[in-house]
Amino acid sequence: MKMRLSVSLLFVGSLVFSMGACKKSASAKEADWTMYGRTNDEQRFSPLNQINEQNVGQLGLVWSHELGTTRGLEATPLVSNGVIYTTGEWSVAYALDATGEILWTFDPKVPRARARFICCDVVNRGLALYHDKVFLGTLDGRLIALDAKTGKPVWDVVTVDQSKSYAITGAPRIAKGLVLIGNAGSEFGVRGFVSAYDAETGKLVWRTFTVPGDPSRGFESKALEEAAKTWHGQYWITGGGGTPWDSIVYDPDLDLVYAGTGNGTAWYRDLRSPGGGDNLYLASIIALRASDGELMWHFQVTPGESWDYDATQPLMLADLKIDGATRKVVMQASKNGFFYLLDRQNGQFISAKPFVNGITWASGIDPKTGRPEESPSAYDGLRAVLVSPSPDGAHNWYPMAFDPSTGLVYVPGREGSTMLHAPDKDWTYNPKLWNRGEDDAYDGPLFRRLLAAPPVTGRLIAWNPVEQREAWSVTLPVVESGGVLATGGNLVFQGRSDGMFCAYRATDGKRLWEFDAGTGIMAPPVTYLVGGVQYLTLMVGWGGAAGLIHPPGGGPSKPGFGRVLTFAIGGNGKLDVPRFGHQGPPSPAISTNATPATVHTGEVLFGKYCFYCHGVNAVAGSGIPDLRYATAETHHQFESIVLGGVRESRGMPSFGDVLKREQLPAIQAYILSRAAAAANTPSNKAP
Ligand code: CA
After folding, report:
1. pLDDT in tens, 594-634
2. Catalytically annotated residues
3. How close is the Cα of 182 to the center of ligand 1, in Å?
4. CATH C-level class of 596-684
5. How far apart are CA 23 and CA 368, in angstroms?
6. What is the pLDDT of residue 624?
7. Does residue 368 have a pLDDT over 60?
């Protein structure tokens, strides 16, 4: 569906042309956005300055293209020669022209049953572009090369063992003719790796695992043999985890590929590796030789990781002057709350400081080694603890941006999140389920303390990486704010869960412009030139992990139909955003005489099988059905839906292999109790 707006491109073009006539014309390199982070260093800085702090007030919508999707959109669009390449839900790829008309759509037809094995919505963060092809990673673990002109597949390879719970949500990257791709699935139990495929042929050139495998089968490398010394027990049975599910960056000068690795399986080290150990290379930044994938160095951000502190957040490269010398650094605002600077030539630790307040898991970082000083309160064997940040992290996958002229990194941050970690001492690996190792039935005293924890604050933080201090920050009215773009116009752009898309002055954070997109925003904007005119393009669509944790009613976030929005100076388009979702509180569709004990049993089962799509406390985000609103018909068909898989084509997989018929009434009783609770709560808020 395409919305036609009143401003013609021609008009905008002539307006800006007259304004920008005195400026030197931008090079083709500056005009386009052809990589995930615009350039190999992933600074997400565009030198374009037609849109700047003086005229950003006249920025407006030029066109909007509705994708007909209702799930989370996280992609960074790529733009080359006036063509926009992007992705939506279920790994669908799109090409649009500069006026928002669809040129082609490619649906890889991911089997909907895969939804069982995806932690955080059916999202995709975008494509890679190389010569005449674009490259797409899919939820079912494929890597597909598409003809950039037609969207027709050129090659299509399976990059994972599809019998296991692997998924791909991250964007591929390019390193000298190789397509690099990672994978996700540590919450379920897989062994993480980075693969490199020949861009022309789709042939696997190298594969580097991030954690050791079964020693009896021999180690793939010396590095993995070394890593195995930091593990205990039969860690390989679950796969171990360490999935590099988001950040992969290539430095052509050093010929190194950097990747961030995820948490382990299970989350808790006493379950995962009885006897402890650092468990290399979980929660680490690793550097691989681009030609063969050999591990050149590693830095473990969170040794013995036990809090879901993936180190997969965006890695950014820069050359910074530190103590009088220019250092080639790699930077990360890590989930664990510390901002890291490493020498990217050798992995040497330079510095780390907390970029949010209230971190409790570590009291600091050893200034020589970079090793965190873990707090005694952060881990107590298999006893429950309250820890900040929560697995949402102080920063997650939302890309940050760097403006070389201000020297500041702009980080989408979260402050004050707390998690109750209650390890399940009876946990055993089940490949058909989540394997976090959490006790879903924990109901002890810390649970009440968690409910009393102060609210989480969303902040856009301008961080001086050289001095490791905050230059300025903006406290946001919502917890979740999306990816960031910095431009030569002294501007920083960022969208939020409440649908507001804002521009701030890069030097001091003054808000200069805002636009109500009507639908929650997670994805980062990009900017580019077409016909000499600077445009901004952004995907809007609420969902992802944030949609589960911060659903509508549980905070000011707006689900809605996914869109591609494009802005320019002089645009004056209006968005007519239809109301989305349920109006008014739910009410129980059928009556139940379940006992509180049955409801509690249902709550535990819901926490084990249902919440990671249908939401925390049965409050769903994005377009996934909120079960509190389930109709009587749905309740009557519950068994055929949950066990029989009759709605699989709509994305609801069968749980017939793990749930029993006699367990369903308890789940229904819990859902109905949540509907009843919401009906009695005028604000319709999650507890
Ligand atoms: Ca994780």
Report:
1. 999 999 999 999 988 998 889 888 888 777 889 999 999 99
2. 308
3. 14
4. mainly alpha
5. 47
6. 86
7. yes
How far does the centroid of ligand 1 lie from the alpha carbon of residue 311, in Å? 9
- For the chain, the straight-line distance linking the first and the last C-alpha, in angstroms and rounded, comes to 37
Tell me the C-alpha to C-alpha distance, in Å, between residue 543 and each of 579, 595, 675. Answer: 16, 33, 21
Question: What average pLDDT does range 164-169 have in this prediction?
Answer: 97
What are the distances in angstroms from CA 187 to CA 192, 315, 545?
A: 11, 22, 13
Helical spans, DSSP H, in 124-176: none
Q: pTM, whole model, 2 decimals?
A: 0.93
State how far the Cα of 89 lies from the Cα of 130, in Å rounded to an integer: 23
Q: What's the CA angle centered on 247, arms 246 and 252, to 5 degrees?
A: 145
What are 37's two structure tokens?
């982070």
For helices 664-679 and 596-609, the axis angle rounded to 10 degrees is: 100
Virtual CA dihedral for 593, 598, 600, 605, nearest 10 degrees? -120
Cα Rg, the chain, nearest whole Å:
24
Place of tokens 């659903």: 551
What is the distance in A from the centroid of ligand 1 to the CA of 243?
9
From CA 413, how far away is CA 230, in angstroms rounded? 32
Residue labelled with tokens 């007519």: 576
What integer pLDDT is reported at residue 656 of this predicted model? Answer: 94
φ, ψ at 424 (rounded to 5°): -95, 105
- Do residues 399 and 38 lie in contact, with contact meaning Cβ atoms separated by under 8 Å? no
Measured CA to CA, the distance from residue 107 to residue 26 in angstroms comes to 35
Q: How far apart are CA 337 and CA 599, in angstroms?
A: 37
Lowest mean pLDDT among 75-89, 344-358, 566-580: 566-580
**Region class of 259: left (phi > 0), else alpha (psi between -120 and 50), else beta:** beta
Q: What CA dihedral angle connects 305, 306, 307 and 313, to 10 degrees?
A: 20
Q: Is the pLDDT of residue 512 over 80?
A: yes
Measured in Å, residue 186 CA sits from the centre of ligand 1 at 6
Q: How far apart are CA 455 and CA 472, in angstroms?
A: 21
- Centre of ligand 1 from the C-alpha of residue 432, in Å: 17
Amino acid at 79: V
CA gap 53, 503 in Å, rounded: 9
Rounded CA-CA distance 396/416 in Å is 14
